[in-house]
Specification:
The complex is a heterodimer of chains A (73) and B (181). Helices cover 27% and strands 12% of the residues of chain A. Chain A is of the alpha/beta class. Chain A has a domain of 47 residues: Rhodanese-like domain (Oxidized Rhodanese, domain 1, 3-Layer(aba) Sandwich), CATH 3.40.250. Chain A has a 3-stranded parallel β-sheet with strand order 2-1-3, with no helix packed on it. Chain A starts with 14 loop residues before the first helix and ends with a strand. In chain B, strand 1 and strand 2 form a beta hairpin. The chains are: A alpha/beta (73), B mainly alpha (181). At the A-B interface, helix 1, helix 2 and strand 2 of A face helix 5 and helix 6 of B.
Chain lengths: 73, 181
């Protein structure tokens, strides 16, 4: 990740738009990332979400396919 | 996503990232993931079969029978891919020996014992059973998406993709039945 990536705009979608997007796409077409803690993830998460706690994003972002849209929560 | 998970009104899965897979010791090889999926399909198949016998309404009976039949087809698809990958036409040890599981114990998604689930269902009405079935399907979708990521090989990935898509259809049918009351 380069310094310019920090200046890229990020859209914030309302939950309904996310839901519609997830319904219309297959899980192979997007990255869905839960950035909360493992304990919070265990309690509940969106089906198919990957757990990458926010503190680990800097080192683990390569696990995500950059060609696909990424949704985080 | 605006508001995070607290704003999410859709269904939610539960369990750790490796839940389901981890319950039976981490299944690392593709064959082990396939065996694990087969075991869970077997559990769901038996659960739906029993619910079909228990329910009185023709609609509920038909729904559970269809779900059970579908899970049977999923088992066949999984065994088929196992045969191709292992090169074995038959394997009496499949799937339990691959997972070091004792015989005679059936499991559902999330490591729930089938026997316990059937006991629980005895005194429950259709709404409770449908809600429980929805949670099973949500966790199955969650697991299959993760398995698809983890498993190697195009063919096995396609099987897990197909399974997660078909479980999504199950979920739609179950939620429609719940909404109908």
């Amino acid at each position: 990740m380069g310094i310019l990536d920090y200046f890229k705009p990020v859209d914030t979608w309302p939950p309904e738009k996310v839901r519609q997007f997830l319904d219309e796409k297959s899980p192979q077409e997007y990255n869905l990332v839960d950035v909360r803690t493992p304990k919070e993830y265990e309690q509940e998460h969106l089906p198919g979400a990957r757990l990458i706690p926010v503190g680990e994003l800097e080192t683990r972002w390569k696990e995500l396919d950059r060609k696909k849209p990424t949704i985080t929560y | 996503m605006e508001g995070g998970i607290h704003a999410w009104k859709g269904l939610r899965a539960t369990g750790a990232p490796e839940a389901g897979m981890a319950y039976f010791d981490p299944a690392k090889k593709a064959e082990e993931l396939i065996a694990l999926a087969w075991m869970l399909e077997e559990g769901s198949c038996k659960f739906y079969l029993e619910m079909g016998k228990k329910e009185k309404s023709p609609e509920a009976v038909a729904l559970f029978r269809e779900l059970s039949d579908d899970e049977e087809k999923h088992k066949a698809a999984l065994f088929n891919i196992y045969q191709r990958r292992s090169g074995k036409d038959s394997d009496p040890g499949f799937p339990r020996s691959l997972l070091s599981l004792e015989s005679g114990v059936d499991y559902l998604e999330g490591g729930i014992f089938l026997k316990k689930a059937l006991e629980w269902a005895q005194g429950k009405g259709l709404k409770d059973i449908l809600e429980f079935s929805v949670s099973l399907e949500v966790n199955a979708i969650d697991l299959y998406i993760k398995m698809e990521r983890k498993v190697e090989g195009k063919e096995a990935k396609e099987v897990f993709q197909a399974l997660s898509n078909q479980e999504r259809n199950h979920l739609k049918r179950l939620t429609a039945a719940l909404e109908k009351g």
